[in-house]
Batch of 4 targets.
Target 1
Amino acid sequence: RRVAVWSPERPGPPAPAHWERAEDDPELYARDLYDGLRRLDALGLDRILVERVPDGADWEAVRDRLGRAAATFAGPA
């Protein structure tokens, strides 16, 4: 499978087909989230893996957006 990874740091082996750097600041991450996911989706890969964001109130909005994005990109059940 061809896999893309969205995370602040490059994953170790085995290397994914594509890696997109996610910001490690919650405001910048939130700003870039949908554009980044659209870029990855346009690559036609089998999976997009998103590294879990940190716990805490400052990441709450990002967690909400990730949940919404997952429902949007997954399509109807």
Target 2
Amino acid sequence: LCGFICGWPWGLLVGFIAPLLRFALFQMPPIFPIGTAMAFELAMYGFAAGLLYKKLPKKALYIYINLIVTMIAGRIVWGVVQFFIAGIRNTNFGLQAFWAGAVLNAIPGIICQIILIPIIVIAFSKSGLFSNEGTVKTM
């Protein structure tokens, strides 16, 4: 959401810091390995959402396209970081673990994002409170 509204630099920064701040405040998720992989994943979400929103046409359909591409990119980054962490910890992280963590366990979050993010982005766009240039045209 930050990437859409504030642009990719802020989206990247806020995405990276959010899981670390959450750990500092609530001791969850554990900073290693979950919080570390999540920091890189959310940084990619913020970066990709902000960059694609700036580059793509300002139409509602492209928010959905942006969101899907962004979620795929973020989950790939999460998988790559988890793979490296598994190597450091001398554990296995295969395709089944990636599929379970990045897709199956994430289905509720994916659905919530696909429903809520476009509504919020369009509302912010129509309010004039956008800093990531542009107004969304609804169909």
Target 3
Amino acid sequence: MLWPQAAGGTNSQRPAMRVVVIFDKNTDKKSLHTGWGISFLINNNILFDTGENGAWLLKNAKCLQLDINSLEAAVISHDHWDHTGGLWEVLAERKGLKVYACAGFSPEFKERVRVAQGALIEVDKVTEISKGIFASAEIAGTYHGQYMPEQALFIRTEKGLSVITGCAHPGIVKILEKAKESFGDSRVYSAFGGFHLMESDKRAIEIVAGRFKELNVTKAGPTHCSGRAAEDIFKKKYGDDFIALKAGEDFNI
């Protein structure tokens, strides 16, 4: 099923959206906490992943003058501590917040969301959660030989299609291909987040970066589990179109 009409008209009718990096392993701002995991705020109302530590996440949000009470939903990419760690403090502040999860997440995660009075939503297909913002639904991946369900965010704006990933355990290229197939787009304006390439050799990373170009990805921003080698290779290949992600940064997609 293709989604361009369901998202509300042509790209030119969709305004750009602001992305704020609330949490990451790097920052240029001394007032912000850094650590393992990522957290992005999209369009001031959708939280994607929550980093490893809730107190740090909330402190960063406060320092960046972001209002947690404006959140409409939290989308969790996958059930790992460095992506769910801050969720519980967020739910303590925003009881009843919608939490979009994969059906394959652990029973323990789902029960904890319910106990924290979050509104758990298990996504089983590409789902529009806010205007122009879609949860990809579960994409099959593996981690240390075990099945790992993961979802990404697909976002439609005037600039085109953007893809945000947590760790990309299913494979970042596989996720990009699903995004393009879901929307019938010939190009992706941006793809950023964790690409899970830190254990890959340089030759394998070069192949992935080459596939980005073949898939017409205009801007790329690897961080978190992507690894230093991947960040260097993508920066060299993308030049001015490389997205340098650090806590406290914000940009439009």
Target 4
Amino acid sequence: MTGRLVMCATPIGNLADASPRLRETLAEADVVFAEDTRRTGKLLERLGVDAELRSFVLGNEQQRSIEIRARLEQGETIALVSDAGMPAISDPGVAAVRAARSVGAVSSVVPGPSAVTAAIAVAGLGGDRFVFEGFLPRSGEDRERRIEIAANDDRPVVLFSAPSRVGKD
């Protein structure tokens, strides 16, 4: 019997936004793979969850996916979290989903806070149509091309940026 992979949305900035379902899922998982184990450790502590914690970052995503595949084959339940928001949305996670599919494991989602929908809602531009570009390259032709395309689109555009890269007023 194969295990299951649960993609878990985590709070964006305020740990009090964690849902009871997120807490339950993390507590029941055999292991939690996290983009930043220190940050996720704080979340687990706040939720009163004691769980095995393993890193899952862009630098080790392929290697960890092999481990995830093996653990799923053993029937384990794996929770995958990113720093804030949903894994695989401008964060590591796609390789884990592919690993789960490769062994016939069920993948599911614990929804939660979304930076994309929060940005659209607070902008007041309407949310029936929008473009999500995620993180842009830091420099180069691809960055310039993506900025030009976004600037010429009549729909609202959501871009992600690290807080350290956003200008201060």
